[in-house]
Structure formats: C-alpha cells, structure tokens
UniProtKB/TrEMBL annotation:
Transmembrane segments: none
Keywords: Coiled coil, Oxidoreductase
Protein name: Prephenate/arogenate dehydrogenase domain-containing protein
InterPro entries: 6-PGluconate_DH-like_C_sf, NAD(P)-bd_dom_sf, PDH_N, Prephen_DH, TYRAAT1/2, TYRAAT2_C
Occurrences of domain Prephenate/arogenate dehydrogenase (ranges): 11-262
Length: 262
C-alpha cells in the first residue's frame, strides 16, 4: 500500500468542530482505543460525555491538552473563520494537523498559511459518511496527501485508523482530488439537488432506475446545503462541471426537439 507503513500506536486526537461527521468518525476512533478530546462553537458536551470524550468550550485548554493529532472537522464555509480564531502559538509540541473536508486545495492553502512551521499537515477526505458508512467502512475510499510530514509514526498511526477498518487508501494530491471530486461528488450532489427541486416521489409504476434516482435524492438532501455550496465555492473545478451539465442538458433537449420537427 502506497504511503503507509505497518507502524501503529494509540493516539490522543483532538477534534475541532464536533458536528455529525466528527461524531461519526469519533465512534470508530474510540472503538480502536484512541483517546479523544473535542471543541466546537456549539455546545456538544452532552454527546461527548456519552462517548467518553472530554469537551472544551475554550480553545486554549483544548490546545494545551497534549494532543498528538488535531483533526479539523468544520464546515467548508466556516473554515477560514475557525482557523483565524485558533491561537496556534500556545501549542507546546509539534502536532499533526489533519483536515477531513470534502474539498482539498482550499484547506491545504489555508492551513499552510496559519500553522506553525513545526506542525505537520495531512490533508484527507473520507469519501463516506454516516449514511453510506453506517454498516462499516470496508472498501470505501479514503483519500489523503502527506503535505508536510516529519513524524512518520504519528502520521502512519492516524492513517491506520482507516486502513484497519478496511478502507481503500488512495494517496493523491489535493489538486487531483478536487478535479476528480468535481466530476464525481459535486455532480452527484447537483443531480440529487435537481431531483429534489423537481420533488420526485415514488409512483405505482417505478422502474429500478427511477427507484435509484429516488434513493439518490433522499441521500443527498440529508446533507446540508452549506456542504453542497462549499463543494462549489471552494473547488475551482466545480464551475466547469456545472457548465458541462448545462451544455449536456441543452444538447439532449435540442436532439429531442429535432425529432419533433422531422
């Protein structure tokens, strides 16, 4: 497997932003024996207490809690504001920062601007979530780029969280991820949103293909519109894919109208 080793140790992982996706990841990390802390703009102390995670309302003691890894799991649209509020200078040791956002060039650029030089950086995207990962992660893609890694043991141990669950480990650049994700993830979300706008519902004469479309719509609308808009605003390849979709629809429409006039 490219880019990973067999070394693995138990980690102290601090999570910035403890929404549904972070909670989903945290449960597996705890199951594997890692120790977690969390901080968030919203008060998630109750769910953290249930999971055995120490929750910090104040960012300073969170940064002072001796984490090996700090996981950034904010929304795409709030990332810049969240990073600007973190006093990185209070960190007492070199730390591995990992982001799990659905776009990659944007957080890579921001984190390289604000992180201390001695901090390591791993950009990742688990290509699954609470819906399609609810029955396990085996065979699901986990993308990562080792942006700046000097502590190989900590990096390898973090990657093993996903490797040990059977993820398909994909080591590619942030640029290549965004290029491919614009064609796959953003396009899928766009079609699902279009079907939602059309308010398609089950009929008495469903085909298997139509049922697939209904399932797609239902899965997509479980995600926030902020996530979808973030995929567009902060992926420089998404606008072209939206244009391609419009061109394709217009081309098909013209072909159909040509048949009407024959």
């Amino acid at each position: 497997m490219s880019g990973t080793s067999s070394f693995s140790m138990k980690l102290k992982v601090g999570i910035v932003g403890f929404g549904p996706f972070a909670q989903f990841l945290a449960k597996t990390m705890i199951k594997q024996g890692h120790t977690l802390t969390a901080t968030s703009r919203s008060d998630h102390s109750e769910i953290c207490s249930q999971l055995g995670i120490k929750f910090f309302k104040d960012i300073v003691p969170f940064l002072d809690s001796n984490n090996d890894v700090i996981l950034i799991s904010t929304s795409i649209l709030s990332l810049s504001q969240v990073l600007s509020s973190i006093p990185f200078h209070v960190l007492k040791k070199p730390t591995l920062f990992v982001d799990v956002l659905s776009v990659k060039e944007y957080p890579r650029q921001l984190l390289l601007q604000v992180l201390p030089e001695e901090a390591d950086l791993l950009c990742t995207h688990p290509m699954f979530g609470p819906v399609n990962g609810k029955d396990g992660w085996a065979g699901l893609a986990f993308m990562y780029e080792r942006v700046r890694i000097r502590n190989e043991d900590t990096c390898s141990s973090f990657l093993h969280i996903f490797q040990n669950e059977g993820c398909r480990m994909v080591e590619i650049s942030c640029e290549e991820h965004d290029k491919q994700a614009a064609r796959s993830q953003f396009l899928t979300h766009t079609i699902g949103r279009m079907l939602s706008e059309m308010d398609i519902t089950s009929t008495s004469v469903n085909t298997k293909g139509f049922e697939t479309l209904i399932h797609l719509k239902d899965d997509i609308v479980k995600n926030s519109f902020d996530l979808y808009s973030g995929l567009f605003v902060h992926n420089r390849f998404a606008k072209q894919e939206l244009n391609n979709l419009e061109i394709a629809l217009e081309t098909i429409k013209e072909k159909l109208l040509d048949k009407v006039t024959e």
